[in-house]
Design brief:
elongated, about 55% helix, 5-stranded antiparallel sheet, alpha+beta
């Protein structure tokens, strides 16, 4: 790490010692982590350890609080890869060129996460009591819902407080639905920020699991389209999500189970079954384009339906759209596309390979 960058970190840490704010310090450490190149992390840890000043120890303690979460997330992401090693984990977070602490060989007894955590714990000794509160948060509530009218992004929100009750804050993560559930943005705000959002209360363990799932998905996609601000919040977002007890990974969305307005028509249940198949694990995303794709492309290509189900489908889709807020543009798109559905379903040239094979087997 350059002398200038190190000096800047120490200067900022000196100011933070005066502010005495765990949250401000954790946010600063997350931003600092985002500015470091992979090769700078271990040398910085070593330099901070050798310095020993209160500013250096605060920096080390704060980095340990947020950076170990990124390492733990990488370990979780590689859990299902049988050939994954600790070297793979460290490379996933820090890159190929990262230097190791003196005496630690590749595949050594201590993982980088353990080394950093121990160094941070040791650094916190002798510092003011508030430093020990960093990372020691309790999740009080959680919410989940649409970020926009059509649910092209969703928001996962978790509210936390420190043991002394001070600095309550909310982590809000934007999760892209169109491109497969990526974490695309995140922010940490005061609780009143939620007043302007239309989110439903949810199980904190489920919401935390969705946050972890979304970040894992982002990490797996090269060149994922994320907000420029996300890297500076990512370490703290991971730390907060992992602070929630027993996060539920890959939790099903309960939107479908809350839909109770299925039309009382012959074939409606069959039609709804195909709609459920189409929306999959992203049922909050319902836009004019998605509704049109369902009626004019997906159904003719993929679905085998009885005449009753084809007849009921427009009313089922209208009911689903009303459940999603009765957005005028969505309803207008359905009115434009629904009359074409019987002809499209009867056009055998539109059927995909699986549909043709299934029809031949009948």
């Amino acid at each position: 790490m350059s002398t200038t960058a190190y000096t800047t970190a120490i200067t900022q840490a000196r100011d933070l010692l005066r502010w005495r704010s765990p949250l401000r310090t954790e946010l600063w450490a997350a931003r600092l982590t985002a500015t470091l190149s992979p090769a700078e992390v271990q040398p910085l840890v070593r330099q901070l350890t050798e310095d020993g000043s209160p500013e250096a120890r605060l920096t080390l303690a704060a980095l340990a609080t947020v950076e170990t979460a990124a390492l733990e997330a990488a370990e979780t992401a590689l859990d299902d890869v049988e050939t994954a090693t600790q070297d793979d984990v460290e490379t996933a977070v820090l890159g190929d060129e990262t230097e190791r602490p003196a005496g630690q060989e590749p595949g050594g007894d201590k993982t980088l996460r353990e080394t950093l955590r121990e160094a941070g714990r040791e650094a916190a000794r002798g510092l003011p009591e508030w430093v020990g509160r960093m990372g020691q948060v309790e999740c009080e509530q959680a919410w989940y819902g649409k970020a926009d009218r059509y649910g092209e992004q969703t928001l996962a929100a978790l509210r936390f407080r420190y043991p002394d009750g001070k600095e309550p804050h909310v982590l809000i993560v934007g999760i892209d639905q169109v491109n497969g559930g990526l974490a695309v943005d995140a922010t940490v705000e005061e609780p009143k920020f939620l007043d302007d959002l239309d989110l439903r209360p949810a199980d904190p363990a489920v919401v935390a699991g969705r946050v972890l799932d979304a970040f894992e998905m982002t990490d797996l996609v090269m060149g994922a389209p994320i907000a420029e601000s996300l890297p500076a919040v990512r370490p703290l977002a991971l730390a907060r999500a992992q602070a929630v007890p027993d996060p539920v990974r890959q939790a099903p969305d309960d939107t479908l189970s809350r839909f109770l307005d299925l039309p009382d028509l012959p074939g409606a249940q069959e039609a709804f079954g195909k709609l459920v198949e189409f929306v999959g694990d992203r049922p909050l995303w319902w836009s004019p384009a998605r509704a049109s794709r369902f009626l004019t492309s997906w159904l003719p290509r993929e679905a085998i339906l009885t005449d009753a189900a084809v007849s009921a489908m427009p009313e089922v889709v209208r009911a689903w759209s009303r459940f999603h807020g009765a957005e005028p543009e969505v309803l207008q798109q359905i009115e434009a596309d629904a009359p074409r559905l019987p002809a499209l379903m009867a056009d055998e040239s539109l059927a995909g390979l699986r549909k043709r094979m299934a029809q031949n087997d009948r």
